[in-house]
Amino acid sequence: MTTTWDQAYNILYCLFDMPQPRVEKCKALFKYAQGTHEGCIVELGTYVGCGAIAMALGAPEGTKVFTVDDYAQRKGWAKEPYDSDNEAIFHANVGKAGVDVTLVKKPVQEAVKDWHHPIGLLHWDLGMFSGMIRDFWNWEPLLIKGGVLAMHDTFERQLGSFELEEEAVKTRRFRAPVHAGGGIWGFEKRPGVVFCAGMSRSGGTLQYLITREILERAGIGRGIGHGNQFQYQKDSRDVLIIKKEQAPTWATDMVLEGAADVVGIFRDPRDVAASLVEFREGEKEFKGFNVSDWRRDIAFAINWQKEWEKLPDVYMTRYENAREQAWGFMAMDIAGHLGLKLTLIEAEDIADTWSIPRTLERIDEIKDEGLWFAREWLLTRAHIGRGKGKVNRWENDLTPEDATWVEGLAGKEWMAAHGYRFAEVS
């Protein structure tokens, strides 16, 4: 049965002194708990259980609530005593409230080491202590995308976790804090990584560059090109934009855990194959050898695309619908998917930065320098050209046998679901 705030207040009033600031704090935590539909609820710093009980009363049915405290003897910021007597009072209060709260009796530094539950709401109520920032970086990765970090007393320098609030804002991993009342400030978690999972030869590099431009202009992320999990761990304080045609397990696991978002683009796989044939010929002409065969490449591209599409809440653009005149709208859609807002003027300015004429100028620079690849832009000298992105080019550039083979790789269901007709076989 759903508990209303009035019902929750009556329970809390019977257990605790409830001056107005505490009422507002408990109401804020109750409301945040009500909105926690994924992941568990965790409180760091228990005392006698007021906050934990407020969250347990608001938590949706089936959502687990944990509170972490070692109950070592010490004094809080207001000189209130913490000891084993508080633990006994906590258990008594939980029993009287009739809620299910699991106490993890460990220091927060130890509890995090073997924590395996994704967190939807993290209530940080630890006050000030040495090592606080280090503990923040141990717990923060467990908070899922869209999850809330609720911190108490963060904007009073002499109280609680002001330094922690500054750290959270500085990371750009959270949206702007919202004051929820009672000294509680809520920070909504952004994904730590945005994967640009464009299908090979489908405009994925363009989409990566546009996504990178959106997030870098907003001051909340930076592009690192073809990154890997080790680079993510090394740079985990930043929102990273990574171009990733492949769908490795470490990346898909991050998406499933809510730690990453996906922006992607797909294309008729027969046109991808035709483009790969031309790309590999240009590569062979420049390097004197082929790095790989187009048939192998298209097989991988199709399989990787299907793996990305299995994931939840993935933004995918159809190449044929993303012609140059629509790139501004694509930029707006990408921004919206990532929780940002762009005006059409801003979006068109970003799209113009990576228009075909400007991109061709960059490719000319690559040629002038005698290079095949420019790491800054992820562009090669054979990346794009006039007419290379033509829709249905496969009808002229692939043999009927090759077109049928590619169709077989993609499968009838995938082709039909993505709006691509099968070749007519005479």
Roughly what is the average pLDDT, rounded to an integer? 85
Instruction: Count every helix, treating DSSP H or I runs of 4 or more residues as helices.
Output: 18
As laid out across the biggest beta sheet, the strand order is 5-2-1-6-7-9-8
Shape: elongated
Helix content: 40-55%
SS-derived structural category = alpha/beta
Major sheet size, sense and barrel closure: 7 strands, mixed
Distance between the termini: 64 Å
Q: Low-confidence stretches at least 5 residues in length (pLDDT < 50)?
A: none
Strand content: 15-25%
- Could you tell me the radius of gyration in angstroms? 26 Å
- Report the count of strand segments: 16
Question: Characteristics of this structure?
Answer:
426 residues, alpha/beta, seven-stranded mixed sheet, five-stranded parallel sheet, 44% helix, elongated
What would your notes on this structure say?
This protein has helices at residues 5-15, 20-34, 50-58, 84-97, 108-111, 132-139, 162-171, 204-217, 229-234, 249-256, 269-287, 294-309, 327-337, 344-353, 356-368, 394-397, 400-410, 412-417; strands at 40-44, 65-68, 74-75, 81-82, 102-104, 119-124, 143-152, 178-181, 184-188, 193-196, 222-225, 240-243, 260-266, 315-318, 373-374, 379-380. A hairpin with a 4-residue loop joins β15 (373-374) and β16. α11 crosses α12 and α13 (327-337) packs across α14. The strands form four sheets. Strands 5-2-1-6-7-9-8 form a seven-stranded mixed beta sheet. Strands 11-12-10-13-14 form a five-stranded parallel beta sheet, sandwiched between helices. It has a two-stranded antiparallel ribbon with strand order 3-4. It has 426 residues and is an alpha/beta fold. The protein has 18 helices and 16 strands. The chain is elongated, with a radius of gyration of 26 Å.
